[in-house]
UniProtKB/TrEMBL annotation:
EC category: hydrolase
Originating species: Streptomyces gibsoniae
Top-level taxon of the source organism: Bacteria
Residue ranges of domain Aminopeptidase N-like N-terminal in the record: 50-219
Signal peptide: 1-24
Key words of the record: Aminopeptidase, Hydrolase, Metal-binding, Metalloprotease, Protease, Signal, Zinc
Residues covered by the Peptidase M1 membrane alanine aminopeptidase domain: 310-455
Official protein name in the record: Aminopeptidase N
């Protein structure tokens, strides 16, 4: 509850502008977390960011990053103090032009006290000057800043921003970005969106990127290194920018043979998911030792290991499907992760069918049959898996099985209308599993509470539908492993640490 400082009508409207309080009485500190039960301190309360302007300089040899972040926000309460999530060393903070006091608290809170308290609903500009060696910083005992022989990469989920820019670090607070990075001549800096300019001066080259549609903080990415950059255009006219480390060794050919198919795959996904939601697309493959891929907005991150067994278009499909399911429509809370991973995995199943390597039904039957009822797989509830199981294989595979169960229940016409309509209905916003169920019920005209409960929220193996039991019985033998299976599962490197 917030108290008014001035009784309504006590002052003429014209003098309300002068109603800046002399003290912070009635003004409260913003919460140190945005209110996500999985991660109580992620994000913050009291304000909403609309834009991040990051002007950075990075020295690969020493891993020194320095920068100025200019954050445009609006207060959502009468605010005496507020937090940003950040780990680097701050030298100065200004709020609306004036120097502000700051300190640190907890694992990753930068606590800022403006000289003048901030009334609810007003625009605020926060400037943070900082520097530091990201690889030396940790929170909860880990770091997600990955150094490479020629640079570094910020790409992780859910934590990635703390090591390179101060933020309201939760998908609920999406914003646009301008990221401008100076690196030594001969080195490149890759980020999201379109490359607005490059310029070189006194041995430093500055790359300026723009991500002009709302973007969650974990989907902001930065890669510094020696890259070979390729460009193209999708059939729909979306510019494609890909980047490959010059140091991919034997994985170089397979990486390019996969990621260079981005335009084709975006065109194919458009048929199922609707128009591509952003003004640029592509991926980058740095020379990291990590194993996973990540759906960083417009510029997907791929570990070289994803291509160690040869080309892999399935992982490209997965990460590009996230551009609609996860990036355009982002989760409201991390418990809603099924909307990201269940659908990105289902897109891989559709691609498998398209490639003649196993139909979605064959993949669903295989997942169902491969996990006996007493397998711990069925104890993970994709609709609310808990923070420790957020990226468990079950969120993906049982999650995609739930998508297939929905398709079986509503029929293909309604199912494909839901698949394509959802990103349009919630464009650039946030949504929950409950929102998805409501949308699916609206489009299909069918009550779906029992289906969602069975497939997403029960810690046990759902009974097969009568039709499926009969079909599997007719086949007499256990479902064979679809040809696409191993490649699809290889997307799950994150589960192997
Ligand atoms: N969202 C990623 C994907 O499925 C996987 C992922 C989960 C991940 N946790 C991560 C990637 C941590 C990098 C770091 O595409
Ligand atoms: Zn995914």
């Amino acid at each position: 509850m917030h108290r008014r400082l001035i009784a309504p009508g006590a002052l003429a409207a014209a003098s309300l502008l002068l109603a800046i309080p002399a003290s912070a009485a009635g003004f409260q500190p913003g919460a140190p977390g945005i209110g996500d039960p999985y991660y109580p301190y992620y994000g913050n309360g009291g304000y909403d960011v609309s834009h991040y302007d990051l002007r950075l300089k990075y020295q690969p040899q020493s891993d020194e990053l320095e920068g100025t972040a200019t954050i445009l926000a609006r207060t959502t309460q009468d605010l005496s103090r507020f937090d940003l999530d950040f780990l680097l060393d701050v030298s100065e903070v200004r709020v609306n032009g004036a120097k502000a006091a700051f300190t640190t608290s907890g694992q990753h809170e930068l606590v800022i006290t403006p000289a003048t308290p901030l009334p609810k609903g007003t625009p605020v500009t926060v400037v943070v000057r900082y520097s530091g060696v990201p690889s030396t910083k940790s929170a909860y005992g880990f770091t997600t800043w990955h150094r490479t022989p020629d640079g570094a990469v910020a790409a992780d989920e859910p934590e990635s921003a703390w090591w390179w820019f101060p933020s309201n670090d939760h998908p609920l607070d999406k914003a646009t970005y301008d990221v401008s990075v100076a690196v030594p001549d001969g080195t490149q800096a890759i980020s999201n969106g379109t490359l607005q300019s490059t310029s070189s001066k006194l041995g430093w080259t500055r790359y300026t990127w723009r991500s002009a549609k709302p973007q969650a903080t974990y989907l902001a990415t930065l890669a510094i290194g020696k890259f070979d950059i390729t460009t193209g255009t999708t059939s729909a006219g979306i510019p494609v920018i890909n980047a490959y480390s010059k140091d991919l060794g034997d994985n170089d050919g397979a990486a390019r043979a996969s990621v260079e198919r981005t335009g084709e795959i975006v065109d194919w996904l458009t048929g199922y998911l609707g128009p591509y939601p952003f003004d640029s697309v592509g991926g980058y493959v740095p020379n990291t030792t990590t194993g996973y891929a990540l759906e960083t907005q417009t510029r997907v991150y791929y570990s070289p290991k994803q291509f160690a067994s040869g080309s892999n278009t399935s992982v490209v499909v997965h990460e590009l499907a996230h551009q609609w399911y996860g990036d355009d429509v982002s989760l409201k809370g991390w418990k809603d992760i099924w909307i990201n991973e269940g659908f990105a995995r289902y897109a891989q199943w559709l691609w498998s069918e398209h490639e003649g390597e196993g139909t979605t039904q064959e993949l669903a039957d295989y997942v169902y049959a491969s996990h006996p009822a007493d397998d711990a797989f069925w104890t993970v509830k994709p609709g609310d898996p808990g923070p420790d199981n957020q990226f468990d294989t079950a969120v993906y595979d049982r999650g995609a099985l739930a998508v297939q169960a929905l398709r079986d229940a509503v029929g293909d016409d309604a199912f494909f209308a839901i698949l394509k309509g959802w990103p349009r209905d919630h464009a650039y916003g946030n949504a929950s599993v409950a929102d998805f169920q409501a949308y699916a019920e609206k489009v299909s005209g069918k009550p779906l509470a029992a289906l969602f409960d069975t497939w997403l929220f029960q810690p046990s193996k759902p009974a097969a539908s009568a039709a499926r039991t009969a079909a599997v019985a007719r086949a007499a033998t256990a479902p064979v492993q679809p040809r696409s299976w191993k490649q699809i599962e290889a997307t799950n490197f994150v589960h192997q640490g």
